[in-house]
Amino acid sequence: MALNVLLIGVGQCGNRILDEINKQAFGGGRLSKYFGRQKFPSNVKTVAINTSRNDLKELEYTKAKDRLHITHLHGVGANREEGKKVYEKNKDSIFKKLEEDDHYDLCFIISSTGGGTGSSFSPPLAQDLKEKYDFQVHSISVLPFRSEGTIFLQNTAFTLRELSDSGLDSIILVDNEFLRKGKDEDIHSAYSRINQMVAERMLFLLKALDSEMMLVTDLGDFKTVMDSGNMFATIGFCNAGENMRVESAIKKSLSPNGLLFDSNIFNEASRAMVTIQGEKDSLDMDGITRIIDKLSDEIGHVFKGVVVTDSNPRVLSVVSLDSSEELDDVFDKAVEAVEIEKKKKELQEENDEVFSKIDGMEPEY
Ligand SMILES: Nc1nc2c(ncn2[C@@H]2O[C@H](COP(=O)(O)OP(=O)(O)OP(=O)(O)O)[C@@H](O)[C@H]2O)c(=O)[nH]1
User: Fold this and answer.
1) Which residues' Cβ are closer than 6 Å to ligand 1?
2) Which atom of ligand 1 is nearest the CA belonging to 152?
3) Where does the record place the Tubulin/FtsZ GTPase domain (predicted)?
4) What CATH code is assigned to 226-321?
């Protein structure tokens, strides 16, 4: 039986990644959302939520009926306290939209951690979904470029903490900073390239979880991987092309070239799920078993799945983490950011006090 999957994109970043998923799922044509059939094996409902009408209008591949505008000026301007209030006020209409289909097996909430709307809606939304239903809820959380400033950094730390307290099943990290190709790549090309990478992995993951072939990875394996470690996880991918051996593709998917977040999996991974797709003749089953066994020895339990398709070998690796040096660094930077913002606020209050010097006085001419 096909899985019923709910994909929610919140805020600008979440909306855009959702749109890219719809683009790839419908085949990419401008009108394909009306005439095409989604390329998912699963039944997938996509919902884009935003406080900014303009961000929603920008979407090209997500049907109008799958968008929900929450009226609140033009976004919440990276202010998470305001965002949380807007969520509470509007959660009935959000749930009405999500409950148009009433049964799901799996849900992903996609958003940035640095902005306002996505980062403040995601934790309470995850909590409400978990309290109300018993399906798996995972977040796909996009970390900011570190140069984006103190507010985005402090938002990131608090968002991750709230997500981790929300009761959801895992936090899948995508790091803009790590994925940018040097300082020369312009930001819009970086966004669209990163969004494509995430979408490609999501489509592959859904296929991996919903295949009826012999040696498959399923929702239970995915849960076992995500239940271990410190809640954080990331996803690796490699398209082997014609000349790469499957074993090398598996290794590459788990290397910095394949992962969405900077992680040394030999030190930091807890468990993994590796799914290989490709033509039957190109899949050396003995070689695959050898490398998966070796990985299991090195990092912990590794589930493996093989899906026979008519394309070149491709590998998807889902990895849960025990620890993360990079995340420690993000939190250190966030602490500095909070200190800087605190000092700025104190300075502003001192400046406000200046006016008290002329309280009760009128200008004399
Ligand atoms: N990968 C990726 N990151 C994005 C994209 N758009 C924005 N971001 C990142 O998201 C963060 C800003 O958050 P947004 O998602 O724009 O903010 P929002 O949730 O809409 O919240 P407000 O605009 O404050 O109401 C920054 O770290 C950006 O680098 C995108 O299309 N792709």
Assistant:
1) 11-13, 16, 51, 75-78, 112, 114-119, 142, 144-145, 148, 152, 176, 191, 194-195
2) 27
3) 4-213
4) 3.30.1330.20
Domain-wise residue ranges, the chain: 4-210, 226-321
Burial class (CB in 10 A: 0-12, 13-18, 19+), 64: exposed
Q: Give the Å distances, CA to CA, from 111 to 63, 156, 357.
A: 19, 11, 46
Q: Is the pTM of this model over 0.95?
A: no
Q: Which of 8, 13, 50, 61 to mutate to test the pocket of ligand 1 (most atoms within 8 A of CB)?
A: 13
Q: What is the DSSP string of 36-55?
A: -----SSEEEEEEEES-HHH
pLDDT tens digits, one per residue of 13-46: 999 999 999 999 877 666 666 666 666 677 889 9
Q: In the numeric block, which tokens belong to residue 246?
A: 């499957």
Architecture of the domain delimited by 4-210: 3-Layer(aba) Sandwich (3.40)
Please spell the DSSP secondary structure of 147-179, one letter per residue: GG-HHHHHHHHHHHHHHHHTT-SEEEEEEHHHH
Express each pLDDT in 90-142 by its tens digit. 999 999 999 987 789 999 999 999 999 999 999 999 999 999 999 999 999 99
Which residue is it, tokens 């930001």?
A: 187
